[in-house]
Amino acid sequence: MKDIKLDPKSESTYECFNCGTVVRATAPDSCPNCGAEMRNRRTPIE
């Protein structure tokens, strides 16, 4: 399995499931534009 190594203190790129907004952050709670859930772009969605 090729999971990413998670370091909660380092920034990563996150993408909004709803509107596609992309942000660099440590761990966003929700999208700054629409409030939807964010996912780490380095994590596969398979």
Could you characterize the architecture of this molecule?
This protein has 46 residues and is an all-beta fold. The two termini are 12 Å apart. The chain has no helices and three strands.
Architecture blueprint of SSEs:
Elements: E1 12-16, E2 22-25, E3 38-40
Antiparallel strand pairs: 1-2, 1-3
Protein name: Rubrerythrin-like domain-containing protein
Domain DUF7129: 9-41
InterPro entries: DUF7129
* Tally of alpha and pi helices: 0
Strand content: 25-35%
| SSE pattern | EEE
Strand order of the largest sheet: 2-1-3
Uncertain segments are: none
The main pleated sheet reads as: 3 strands, antiparallel
Q: Percent range for helical residues?
A: under 10%
List keywords for this structure.
46 residues, mainly beta, DUF7129, Rubrerythrin-like domain-containing protein
In short:
It comes from Haloarchaeobius amylolyticus. The chain is built from no helices and 3 strands.
